[in-house]
């Protein structure tokens, strides 16, 4: 029976089953380990701010060293997110999900002996590098396993756990980190939650969505059965039969595919139970390469592929059980008549996926064709294409270019501005909270700091309710507007009473903590599977550069232009986020991320 197969290379068929799966103990395990990672992140970043004043007095740190130590982990986060985010899309999520916490655990423990500021700076760069990897793959893994109805709650809760770690570090550092030795002990305690996360993560399987995007459907099915006690469902069965660059198969005994090389060519691709589909043949200037194709679990027949010397054409087919739409990348170039053939053949096998050999013969000018030699073919309507565009890239720079390709660029620009504008004031203000409270001339600064941290925690928990009840777009617009007004009011009231100053400060803290839940939810929902870790890593990385800039600049700003104007320019950053959200924020609450929709 016909089965829709939208975006087959992203595994949309698998996604429907994962999204509808009941909550299982494995969901809780992945959630718990990702929660622990965010707790560790918040604890590591919060502790340096809490003990930095003590280290400054003990080590006579200059303003430059204060800024560098405060921003060190954030700088590492940038490089870790950017570099390892893309690695997660190439090699998978699971390896990074485990090994990054080996680095974090070791580097955190070594802080106990890092008396030299340069050594401490280096260790915190490494901690940030490891955390950056988790910023990319942690929420990605959770979003690809979590049922849709719980995705917002679970991903949003990551920020709450980050806040718990941050607040706990602030309280411990404020009340216990009064001596130099104790300050270093508190920094090294970050190894404890990191070690616990590492131990629990051992044995975590690969993301099924990533496996499907790589054509490894049987492995994905095994993981769903073993860890989620669930079949992938009818749609996933269609994907396992064929979800490559062509489309799903049709009942019958053969497979065929064709592509045009002018404009956005539609490729028809059909497969059959008991026959292997051809691989995707790419023709550019007469050189052809046949990509692998996934086959069903019965003995396949041989396949052939052809190419053209003019233009670029792609076509592929895979074996399956039902008729589905086919896709092909957008190509360009003139074509003339004249069929060609090339010689890749599929190795026969009795079960499991079958791949097409990566060889092709010479071609003359003409459209490229690809067809399997065994059996009749079924008809696929070329108008029913599910996706037209370039295939997922396997190179890092090409993948980052795809983030800014038509159809994706607007989401990437929004994510970049939204995330950066949200976290820049956050990290700048809370890293130098004691300095700001001193500039505000508040009474009992330690008590006020504790009050602000409690509002931070309460705001994060309350924000989860709004995250579940509201759409992403209205929530991000409303919270940016409130935060902008609160910091602008702080700038206007710098010479007012402590009570008048603390009211907008508490409002900003409460709303900002709730809004920060979106930073874990939105990025994972903006990208399809084959780009998700790259996109999430990119947004996390660029936001951490913004955080580092804010953290480094704020103490200089406080000294040079004063508290009032410092609050004004921070409010200006939030205003930029408000404008970008009004203009570009998409509504992604109902989108499927187990497939990358």
Could you please say which CATH topology of the largest domain applies here?
Growth Hormone, Chain: A
Q: Which strand-content bin applies to the residues?
A: under 5%
Average of the residue pLDDT scores? 71
Structural class: mainly alpha
- The SSE order reads HHHHHHHHHHHEEEEEEEHHHHHHHHH
Identify the CATH architecture of the largest domain: Up-down Bundle
CATH superfamily membership of the largest domain, which one? MFS general substrate transporter like domains
| Strand line-up across the major sheet | 2-1-7-5
Low-confidence regions? 1-15, 234-394, 593-597
Q: What is the number of E strands?
A: 7
Note the overall shape. globular
Task: Give the helix proportion (percent range).
Answer: 55-70%
Number of domains: 2
Spatial extent as radius of gyration: 27 Å
The main pleated sheet reads as: 4 strands, antiparallel
Brief write-up:
The chain is mostly helical and 597 residues long. The protein folds into two domains: 8-211 and 398-584, MFS general substrate transporter like domains (Growth Hormone, Chain: A, Up-down Bundle), CATH 1.20.1250.20; 246-390, no CATH class.
Task: Tell me what the structure shows.
With 597 residues, the protein is mainly α. It has two domains: 8-211 and 398-584, Growth Hormone, Chain: A; 246-390, no CATH class. 60% of the residues lie in helices and 4% in strands. The chain has 20 helices and seven strands. It has helices at residues 12-20, 25-59, 63-91, 94-110, 117-145, 148-176, 180-188, 191-201, 208-213, 217-228, 234-241, 396-403, 409-431, 433-440, 445-469, 472-492, 498-515, 518-525, 529-560, 562-584; strands at 256-258, 268-270, 281-284, 287-290, 303-305, 312-315, 369-372. A four-stranded antiparallel β-sheet has the order 2-1-7-5, with no helix packed on it. Strands 4-3-6 form a three-stranded antiparallel β-sheet, with no helix packed on it.
């Amino acid at each position: 029976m016909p089965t829709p197969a939208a975006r087959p290379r992203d595994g949309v068929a698998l996604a429907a089953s994962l999204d509808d799966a009941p909550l299982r103990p494995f969901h809780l395990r992945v959630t718990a380990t990702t929660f622990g990672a965010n707790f560790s992140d918040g604890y590591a970043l919060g502790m340096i701010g809490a003990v930095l004043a003590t280290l400054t007095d003990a080590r006579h740190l200059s303003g430059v060293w204060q800024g560098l130590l405060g921003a060190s982990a954030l700088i590492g986060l940038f490089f870790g997110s950017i570099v390892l985010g893309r690695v997660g899309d190439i090699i998978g999520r699971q390896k990074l999900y485990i090994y990054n916490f080996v680095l974090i655990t070791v580097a955190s423990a070594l802080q106990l002996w890092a008396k030299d500021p340069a050594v401490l700076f280096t260790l915190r760069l490494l901690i940030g590098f490891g955390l950056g990897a988790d910023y990319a793959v942690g929420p990605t893994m959770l979003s690809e396993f979590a049922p849709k109805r719980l995705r917002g709650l679970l991903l949003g809760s990551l920020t709450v756990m980050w806040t718990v770690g941050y607040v706990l570090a602030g309280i411990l550092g404020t009340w216990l980190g009064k001596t130099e030795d104790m300050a270093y002990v508190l920094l090294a305690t970050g190894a404890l939650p990191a070690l616990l996360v590492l131990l629990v993560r051992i044995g975590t399987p690969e993301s099924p969505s990533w496996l499907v995007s790589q054509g490894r459907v049987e492995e994905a099915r095994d993981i769903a059965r073993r860890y989620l006690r669930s079949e992938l469902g009818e749609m996933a069965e269609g994907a396992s039969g064929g979800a490559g660059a062509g489309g799903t198969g049709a009942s019958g005994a053969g497979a065929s595919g064709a592509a045009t090389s002018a404009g956005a060519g539609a490729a028809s691709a059909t497969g059959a139970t008991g026959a292997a589909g051809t691989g995707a043949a790419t023709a550019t200037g007469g050189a052809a390469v046949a990509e692998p194709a996934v086959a069903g679990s019965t003995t396949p027949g041989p396949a052939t592929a052809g190419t053209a010397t003019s233009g670029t054409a792609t076509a592929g087919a895979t074996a399956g059980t039902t008729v589905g739409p086919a896709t092909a990348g957008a190509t360009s170039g003139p074509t003339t008549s004249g069929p060609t053939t090339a010689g890749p053949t599929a190795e026969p096998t009795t079960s499991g996926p079958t791949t097409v050999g990566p060889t092709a013969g010479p071609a003359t000018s003409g459209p490229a064709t690809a067809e399997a030699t065994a059996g009749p073919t079924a008809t696929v309507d070329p108008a029913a294409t599910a996706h037209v565009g370039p295939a997922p890239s396997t190179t890092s720079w090409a993948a980052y270019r795809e983030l800014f390709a038509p159809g994706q660029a607007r989401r990437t620009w929004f994510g970049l501005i939204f995330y950066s504008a949200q976290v820049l004031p956050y990290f700048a203000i809370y890293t130098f909270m004691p300095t700001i409270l001193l500039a505000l001339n508040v009474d009992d600064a330690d008590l006020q700091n504790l009050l602000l941290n409690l509002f931070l925690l309460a705001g994060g928990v309350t924000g989860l309710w709004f995250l579940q009840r509201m759409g992403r777009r209205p929530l991000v617009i409303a919270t940016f507007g409130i935060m902008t007004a609160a910091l602008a009011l702080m700038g206007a009231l710098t010479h007012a009473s402590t009570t008048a100053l603390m009211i907008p400060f508490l409002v900003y803290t409460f709303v900002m903590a709730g809004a920060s839940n979106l930073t874990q939810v939105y990025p994972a929902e903006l990208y399809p599977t084959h780009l998700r870790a790259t996109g999430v890593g990119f947004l996390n990385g660029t936001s951490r550069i913004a955080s580092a800039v804010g953290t480094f600049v704020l103490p200089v700003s406080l000294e040079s232009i004063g508290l009032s104007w410092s609050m004004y320019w921070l409010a200006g950053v939030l205003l930029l986020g408000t404008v970008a959200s009004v203009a570009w924020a998409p509504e992604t609450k109902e989108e499927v991320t187990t497939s990358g929709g």
